[in-house]
Amino acid sequence: MHIAIAGNIGSGKTTLTKMLAKRYGWEPRFESVEYNPYLQDFYNDMKRWSFNLQIYFLNTRFKDVVELSKTSKTIVQDRTIYEDAKIFAPNIHAMGNMTDRDFQTYSDLFELMMSLVKKPDLMIYLRSSIPNLVAQIQKRGREYEQSMQLDYLKGLNDRYEEWIGSYDGRLLVLDVDTLKFEENPKDFETITEKIDSLLFGLFPM
Description:
By secondary structure, the chain is an alpha/beta fold. Helices cover about 55% and strands about 10% of the residues. The chain has helices at about 15-25, 40-45, 45-70, 80-95, 100-115, 130-140, 150-165, 185-200; strands at about 1-5, 25-30, 75-80, 120-125, 170-175. Strands 2-3-1-4-5 form a 5-stranded parallel β-sheet, with helices on both faces. The longest helix is centred in the first third of the chain and has 23 residues, at about 45-70. About 30% of the residues are buried.
């Protein structure tokens, strides 16, 4: 099976991926952050580096999806290929930081890729308010994220809500403003009970 975890920057995707991998014995797959050759440049000059960054992400995640389709293991994945195409690239384009030409090229490439793969068996969306995201971003203290603009983060959140509202696969939405799964074992248990019901219940959705 392929379990995917989606959510805005700072929503807790990596933490939940680790916890679910440990709980179920699933194999975790994490988003490459430290070794992304474009990320720091992007935050310093979005207009110059946006296309490069998004193509890098798209290529990396498509490789992951192809690999996932060939394994018999259950994989839990930190962030998905859909978020690049449905959230980050459109947001960058709308802000004027990616040209129409580059965005069209990117979108065409994404549609071609998606014609070759299937949706995850379960999409878990971590819904969060902006204040909660900001608090988490400050807490983890990644230097390149500290210069992030608030309107950029809000734009992403709006697009996440729009995308998840039309997502037509098996979906679990978690409110991480109230479900403090890292700190509260009962909250984590609530999440695993929902996952068990969706994937392993008598009448799985």
